[in-house]
Design goal:
The complex is a heterodimer of chains A (182) and B (212).
Chain A: H1 3-19, E1 25-26, E2 33-34, H2 39-65, H3 78-82, H4 86-105, H5 111-139, H6 143-150, H7 154-174
Antiparallel strand pairs in A: 1-2
Chain B: H1 12-15, H2 18-34, H3 38-54, H4 59-66, H5 70-83, H6 86-109, H7 112-122, H8 133-163, H9 170-194, H10 200-207
Chain lengths: 182, 212
């Protein structure tokens, strides 16, 4: 692993932490607060690929676990990671890895439909596949109840995907060195 | 910027090695989830409260941790009550509260830097998997340094975009921040290498890893 890769891993871990500082938006229609933080795994995977993206989010998880209050709303520590929403945070490294893998396969240029598909499947699907059973296990709810309780977040996730696509495309234009596998 | 929930202290819990505390947390979590008995959950809950009080952390600290969780606890217990009965609701709520309180106790009594040092020592066991502890610790300390730097870069960019009337646009803030960060990453990587940093040396001999 090169020094540049290590720096990128630390950078995207820190970026995910910083995204937690954005004030949460509350959607008036559904009344669910969405935070910018879950864009972290999408941006990391889409910009620096599977290895660095996945490790960046794994590093973020470790930093939260040792007690840094880096999750949205200034939460942190083992208590939150074992709580109801802990499964989503645990899913982020895998999501970042999967998104990065898919982007790399498409040489970081999957086209708009491809980008939407990658981010919906891995950025939403994979994250809920881990997060929802986790809620059901921790809170003692059935899978179905946990799923219904989480479904209100999906519109917010779709908005985030649109924002991530806009950001990654612009960043790639402004910093073409990224696409050359640096 | 406060970067840890650590409360200074000198009691036994503060002096225990962080590794032991993490193992105890993992063991307690496994036990409570594997044995869903009301008695066990209640005893654990009382024991954890006793640990807090015995370490000089008063009810105010306990309440400070429990208060933000009350809504979640109520939802969880309510769902259990509705699905099963009051006793299992009580069991689930006590179990969750005990685990969260114990996990917070680990965080409250361990400095984040000690926890990271313990992790670095534990990473020694990952060497056969070609994980180099020196590289992991470089990544950890870089990330800790980047977080406040990122905060100030974000503040600068937001100010610049406010002058253009764009301070509410996530994209107009995020793109310049990320591009500046990527440029900074290149400079930092060059600077680290220019100072002869080479954590791969030792490992490359033992694992045969080659560096560019």
């Amino acid at each position: 692993m090169t020094t540049r890769e290590i720096v990128h891993i630390a950078l995207f871990a820190a970026l995910t932490a910083a995204l937690g500082l954005f004030p949460p938006l509350t959607l008036p229609a559904v009344g669910v607060a969405i935070t910018a933080q879950s864009m972290g795994p999408m941006l990391a995977g889409a910009l620096v690929g599977a290895k660095r993206g996945g490790l960046a989010l794994a590093l973020f998880y470790v930093l939260v676990a040792v007690g840094m209050p880096l999750l949205a709303g200034g939460r942190g520590g083992m208590g939150v990671l074992l709580g109801a929403s802990g499964g989503f945070v645990l899913a982020w490294p895998l999501a970042a890895f999967a998104i990065g893998w898919a982007y790399q396969r498409a040489r970081f240029n999957p086209g708009l439909p491809g980008e939407v598909a990658i981010l919906v499947i891995f950025g939403i699907g994979l994250v809920y596949l881990i997060g929802v059973p986790w809620i059901s296990a921790v809170a003692g709810l059935s899978l179905w109840q946990a799923l219904v309780g989480s479904i209100g977040f999906i519109p917010g996730d779709l908005v985030k995907i649109a924002v991530v696509i806009a950001i990654t495309r612009t960043v790639r234009r402004a910093y073409p060195a990224l696409s050359q596998g640096r | 910027m406060i970067l840890s929930d650590y409360l200074p202290g000198t009691g036994l819990l503060w002096r225990l090695p962080p590794g032991i505390k993490l193992l105890a947390l993992a063991a307690l979590g496994t036990l409570l989830l594997a044995v869903p008995l009301l008695d066990l959950a209640a005893i654990t809950f009382v024991a954890v409260i006793a640990l807090y009080l015995g370490s000089g952390l008063g009810w105010r600290v306990i309440w400070g941790i429990l208060r933000p969780m009350l809504l979640i606890l109520a939802i969880v217990a309510g769902a259990q009550w509705w699905l099963f009965d009051a006793l299992s609701a009580l069991m689930v709520a006590l179990r969750l509260a005990a685990l969260l309180l114990f996990a917070s106790l680990v965080t409250l009594t361990t400095r984040a830097s000690d926890m990271i040092a313990a992790l670095e020592r534990a990473l020694f066991w990952l060497r056969p998997l070609r994980v180099n502890p020196a590289k992991v610790s470089l990544a950890l300390s870089l990330a800790l340094r980047f977080i406040p730097v990122l905060g100030s870069i974000t503040a600068e960019v937001r100010e610049a975009q406010r002058a253009r009337g764009l301070e509410r646009s996530v994209i107009a803030t995020a793109v310049p921040v990320i591009v500046r960060l990527l440029k900074m990453a290149d400079d930092i990587a060059d600077a680290i290498e220019a100072r002869g940093y080479d954590p791969g040396n030792e490992t490359s001999r033992s694992t045969g890893e080659t560096r560019p």
